[in-house]
């Protein structure tokens, strides 16, 4: 009987502790009305209800935590390169840098440990922390290149520059490399067909930009029907030369 009596409370305690969660909530308050002082060796007066009215000074639960510093072990897209000391939000540093093993705590020992060597400094792989992100963005879109349907034209880099500006990208003409084969028009056989051009970023990274040709006329009666979300539709290549090859397959 005694054994059964003592076993039951232990089981209840175990189940209760598994439900406990630590909550850090601290509120800094101040009285709205200062209570009156009492004389020495005199019984304090009973405080009225208004002296128990408090005003909130600070809520530590919603207080912004300071940034946390970390030393990068390798290149991290959008953050920095190896050996850089970055200061970011603690949540991002813990979950995106420290836990995956991409960074370590900022200490003099870690700064010296992960500093770049002379060989690594000479072999530059990334021009900036955001260059690769720009490459990924350019290679993920289908750029609409709108050309005149009534007047003759030859595709030039400034056409791609204007199309990129309409899509939200600012680029210089000297950074754009067109295909070797000449593209000219107007030619409705080339309508809604794709070709690739190369965009060089910071004279180092290169993005392979997929472009789609469209014809447009100033005369509303001569305009082609509008294609909604053209990038979702299948299309044919405009040029057979320079098509990207799938990995593992060689062109015969």
From TrEMBL:
It comes from the Eukaryota. InterPro entries: Ribosomal_bL9, Ribosomal_bL9/RNase_H1_N, Ribosomal_bL9_N, Ribosomal_bL9_N_sf. GO terms for cellular component: ribonucleoprotein complex; ribosome. GO terms for molecular function: structural constituent of ribosome. Keywords: Ribonucleoprotein, Ribosomal protein. Residues 68-114 form the Ribosomal protein L9 domain. One of its GO terms (biological process) is translation. Belongs to the bacterial ribosomal protein bL9 family. This is Large ribosomal subunit protein bL9m. It comes from Drosophila kikkawai. The gene is mRpL9.
